[in-house]
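User: For my dataset I need records formatted as: sequence, then structure tokens, nothing else. Please produce one.
Assistant:
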Amino acid sequence: MKSTQSFNSAAHRYTDALRQSVSEWLQGKGKLTLLAQQKILAQQLPKIVGDAALQVSVGQPIKLLEGAKMQQQWVVSRAPGGDAQVDPCYLPFSNRSLDLILLHHSLDFENDPHQVLHRAVSALTAGGTLIVIGFNPFSLCGVARFWKARSEPAPWQGRFIRSRKVAEWLQVLNCEVTYKESACYAGPNTLGTGLWQQLGAQFWPQYGAFYVLVARKRTAMIRPLRDNTKQGEAAPNMIGVSLARTASTTQQKDLNK
């Protein structure tokens, strides 16, 4: 674990050139990874209800929302080719305006993953769905990056945040992980084939090259007012309190701990 922390705290900052290289890798050498991600999304997206969906991409946008049954869909990235060029830390959408947000490796290659996640959750409606796709440090590919990153930047110089840590951040932001899946268990040169792929799918299904987390933003709860009435008086009123709203003043502080 110590060596992983040392790698992740490298002095370099993620650049647009590196993000573009990641996009090219997913459509080239990493094509099997992308196909596996599309397969999982094809199973999950049709289950999500709502009207507005957003995909946040790394590098040249790769459209992944085809399976979403939502009338309004946008794909944004720092690179041209989508509906808009934006910084994921400052998504140009109002709070509580989107029913679905897909962060496609955004946490792996943005300089402030906490802010990216915080802004995405803020833009979600109560009960909205956030999907996070990230590279898994606890995989054969996660191990291989320690020597491949020296000669091949993308995607091996990514942050590779473990899924449990992302789930903890989501918990602070009042989101509950409802589904998790992983895939591609072989090494970086044979991501989707071979004996390792078969063994991984059977014996360590959560330790593939990438993970997909599906989280739901919690809705309002009902909290009764303090009962100061005397016997015979009217019952107390009930008020709805948004969990997301009550946590908004403390969530950033908690994430930075």
